[in-house]
Write a sequence for this structure.
């Protein structure tokens, strides 16, 4: 993400009531340091950043990592998403991307002063990243196979596992798109080609006379968003190439086999497209908590425990996780111990922390207790259901 993109995104999040701060090289060192310290110490704070942020951050309870631009390699993606959920509790990684992102990234590679061999490697890595975005397979399986780790069982947590990707016979759509590329002289990007396919008589279409082409309006059965999905998949599959200097789409040797009917083209049906407005409404809401507790009382207690932890952390000028991790507060909420001995049996509470904070957190538990409290001794405790937003 560019510095400008960081500032715009940060401003938009704050307008939506989501507390966010920026981090990029254009800020003075004092502001960068202050925002980084706030991220480590405060809860519920979003940092919108360029790649300049996060490499040395040690915050175990990051619940959400979002990429508004795709990383340039799976290695970078793996490292950056690995910052979430280091405390062992559920966390989400989310990414959005479009063909324009890939074009821009390839253009940056070509314009760099790197050796040609290095550029070739960078293009190859970006191609793998692009393919990962468009896969219909379990994303964790694809990721681990790339790093040489066999993983044959679907993870059950990624988007393609939770909402299996439906494929469709896209050969005819591919032929229409490729024909439009050919008829327009292989000189235009996806946006203009889609206008021609949809029959949109824009000023540019009319100025170039493309409303007279046989491909004008032949793709009206597919939405604009649907055609963008087709274009991305054709590029990811090597069925179209991109002139990264000008952003135009061009035919490849494989394109001609498709156009001659010698090759079938299965395409993924984007779940967002299939779900329509309902999906858009769901995406517009805030993510649900990573942990769902059984009762309103447990939810109140967990919130109270986190508030007490934050207050102590602020007084001591340390990050909240230095007091207790979320996973430890979760155990307190589930088991609700009533004395020092039972509190000390929970994970993450050593003798020093028990002595320093034990009575304080027991008071919070007592103040928010159920009518019948249960000691964890000899019991597994209540179940805590974990879900993903």
């Amino acid at each position: 993400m560019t510095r400008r993109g960081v500032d715009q995104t940060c401003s938009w999040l704050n307008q939506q009531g989501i507390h966010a701060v920026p981090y990029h090289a254009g800020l003075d060192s004092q502001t960068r340091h202050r925002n980084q310290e706030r991220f480590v110490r405060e809860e519920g704070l979003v940092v919108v950043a360029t790649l300049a942020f996060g490499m040395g951050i040690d915050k175990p309870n990051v619940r959400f990592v979002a990429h508004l631009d795709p990383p340039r390699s799976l290695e970078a993606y793996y490292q950056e998403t690995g910052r979430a959920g280091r405390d062992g509790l559920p966390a989400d990684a989310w990414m959005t991307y479009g063909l324009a992102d890939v074009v821009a990234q390839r253009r940056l590679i070509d314009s760099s002063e790197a050796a040609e061999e290095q550029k070739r490697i960078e293009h190859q890595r970006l191609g793998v990243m692009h393919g990962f975005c468009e896969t219909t397979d379990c994303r964790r399986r694809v990721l681990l196979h790339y790093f040489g780790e066999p993983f044959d069982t679907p993870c059950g947590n990624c988007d393609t596992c939770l909402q299996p990707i439906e494929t469709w016979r896209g050969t005819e759509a591919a032929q229409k798109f490729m024909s439009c590329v050919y008829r327009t002289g292989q000189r235009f990007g996806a946006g203009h080609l889609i206008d021609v396919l949809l029959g949109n008589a824009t000023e540019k279409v009319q100025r170039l006379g493309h409303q007279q082409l046989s491909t004008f309006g032949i793709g009206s059965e597919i939405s604009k968003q649907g055609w963008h999905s087709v274009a991305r998949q054709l590029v990811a599959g090597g069925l179209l190439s991109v002139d990264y200097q000008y952003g135009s789409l061009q035919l490849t040797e494989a394109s001609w086999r498709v156009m001659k009917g010698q090759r079938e083209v299965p395409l993924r049906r984007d779940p967002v497209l299939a779900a329509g407005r309902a999906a858009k409404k769901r995406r517009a809401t805030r993510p649900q908590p990573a942990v769902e507790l059984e009762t309103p009382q447990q939810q109140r207690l967990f919130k109270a425990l986190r508030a007490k932890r934050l207050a102590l952390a602020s007084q001591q000028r340390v990050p909240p996780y230095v007091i207790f991790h979320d996973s430890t507060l979760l155990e307190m909420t589930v088991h609700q111990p009533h004395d020092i001995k039972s509190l000390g049996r929970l994970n993450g509470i050593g003798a020093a922390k028990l002595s320093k904070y034990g009575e304080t957190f027991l008071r919070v538990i007592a103040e928010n207790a159920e009518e019948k409290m249960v000691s964890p001794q000899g019991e597994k405790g209540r179940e805590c259901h974990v879900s993903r937003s």
In short: The chain is about 50% helix and 10% strand. The CA atoms of residues 201 and 209 lie 10 Å apart. The chain has a mean pLDDT of 84. The beta strands are 20-23, 46-49, 64-67, 92-95, 166-169, 240-243, 248-251, 266-269, 291-292, 385-386.
